[in-house]
Amino acid sequence: MCISTADAAFSGTVLYCGRQRHPEDGGLIHVLGYQNTAENLADGPNAMLLHLPTGQLTPEQFISVGSDDDVLRRMVDAVAPPEVETDGMDWMDAGPEPVVRVFEHDVYTVLLADDPGLIPAALHRVPWKRRPQLTPELLTFYAERFPDHAIALCCFDNADAKRAKPLLVWYSPHDPDQLTVPALDSHTGGAPDLDADVPVDHWVLFSSDEAPSDGWGAPVAHPERMRHRLRSFLPDRVVGRYYGDGQTLRNGDFGIRHRDLLAGELDRVERRRP
Predict the structure, then answer these.
(1) Cα angle vertex 64, ends 62, 69, to 5°?
(2) Distance in angstroms (rounded) separating the CA atoms of residues 225 and 103
(3) What is the mean pLDDT of residues 87-107?
(4) Which of 91, 92, 107, 197 shows a CA-CA span of 20 to 30 A to 244?
């Protein structure tokens, strides 16, 4: 249910995109949430790739969830119908020139790149036990199909299925009125087949701080002890649905227009291809 650089199994994926004002400077931002259970099936290290519709990311834009590693689970609990059982699910410095930033996040060593062509030269900064082999085909795909996106390469080497803490990151989107979450699928190390139908196992969630206060979405039960900074990037209400149970969809990301989101028209969620 995502792009990996070698054979891997990902399950119980939760995808979230929220539109809001930055709690400090008031700028319009999107907040991406991503969580799954990852199992490395390759002989050596592995990695998953995420693409975000923004010009640049820094490690400071990744929001630590600390002990609140159930922030996305609480959103799922808010929108899941009563008959859907979720307890047993698997979860899982900026400069003017392009650079690659490397940092640790839970089970991942993350490389942030404004240009995917810069990633190979930075792999030596990844601990050897997590350092994946990258195919030129895959990097060429991202360079050609997502030339204006920031790329996050999340390196891991856990042979057992392990639930990762959520990746939660804010960014200034190219188009604030298009909310998109990365969901392209390929586990071969090569470029994804955009014409393929692929199995899905995703909770897809959206929010907006411009949503009507009455009758829109489902309230999220955040704990009172949650740190203020983390809480300021999380929604009060969300909408969403589950895609899975043997379902297949044409390969692509999930997205919705902001006006359709405000109208609660989840049937307008699209599979988007680059």
Answers:
(1) 125
(2) 27
(3) 63
(4) 107
